[in-house]
């Protein structure tokens, strides 16, 4: 009988080699998993410890919602092609629930609230936003209460009823040429956007509301010179935004707008700023400054995180509170301060000549 060692076939040797390698990796992976999940008795894993430290830092240095933008409605009567907060829902919180959320924000350190949309004056003909403005100034005693509007739905009666409680009214105006406004979609039917603007300018002065102008610089207006008109209106601030793409809002398959054709380069935006360098109230906001420097609440009172180029919502402050929800806001406080987000925002401190 032959007792010499049997010679394995090449196929069998390969199979054993693969089996051995698999066992080595399985063992190593099992130990790694055991360690990283903190299963080793008497020890804490590095991953768990690092996560705990991050949570502790967040608890020790929580974000204060000093200035909040509440987009309580998405509905609008204009069709601006670059709009980055579109009518994806028609939901609006009941008034008392909205007040509850605003009170929570005040208790967490909010000093300024800005109501936006959509078009804020569209819902209940401006009564809803009017009551919120009055509540924030009269009951919560916030230093600053403001609204951003396209101006098309505002009536003088609203100023007579609520103007006293409003610090700043920002009107969106991208061009002082009606044809350009038509191209952009900053219009409703044959109504003149500019006529509404100048009418509101006079009401703001009469009812002692500080006026601000917001302009989105895009492919249809980047070569315009607005110096003369802005100096004539003389707003307390002229916010100049570079057209921004947000996935799911004005870009991408699920978006209600296609803003790609409105986008301009950084150099084109800078050219516009250079052309208006003599305008002292100009406050420029490039895409970099805009993206993460706003605390945005949507219609459900969820903070929206825009860091990934889209709007990822937190849980509602009505469900989890401000402290837990704001952790998922993506808010960059340093950029907020860098872009001039903190300024004299109470009309009582502006010392304006009405």
UniProtKB/TrEMBL annotation:
CDD domains (alphabetical): Radical_SAM
Listed Pfam families: Radical_SAM (PF04055)
Membrane association type: Peripheral membrane protein
Residue span, Radical SAM core domain: 62-282
Keyword match Zinc: no
Domain of life: Eukaryota
A GO cellular-component term linked to this record: endoplasmic reticulum membrane
Broad class of where this protein is predominantly found: endoplasmic reticulum
Subcellular location: Endoplasmic reticulum membrane
Keywords assigned by UniProt, alphabetized: 4Fe-4S, Antiviral defense, Endoplasmic reticulum, Immunity, Innate immunity, Iron, Iron-sulfur, Membrane, Metal-binding, S-adenosyl-L-methionine
MF (Gene Ontology): 4 iron, 4 sulfur cluster binding; catalytic activity; metal ion binding
GO biological process: defense response to virus; innate immune response; positive regulation of immune response
Cofactors, names only: [4Fe-4S] cluster
Record's keyword annotation contains Translocase: no
Protein family per UniProt: Belongs to the radical SAM superfamily. RSAD2 family.
Protein name: S-adenosylmethionine-dependent nucleotide dehydratase RSAD2
Species this protein is from: Neolamprologus brichardi (Fairy cichlid)
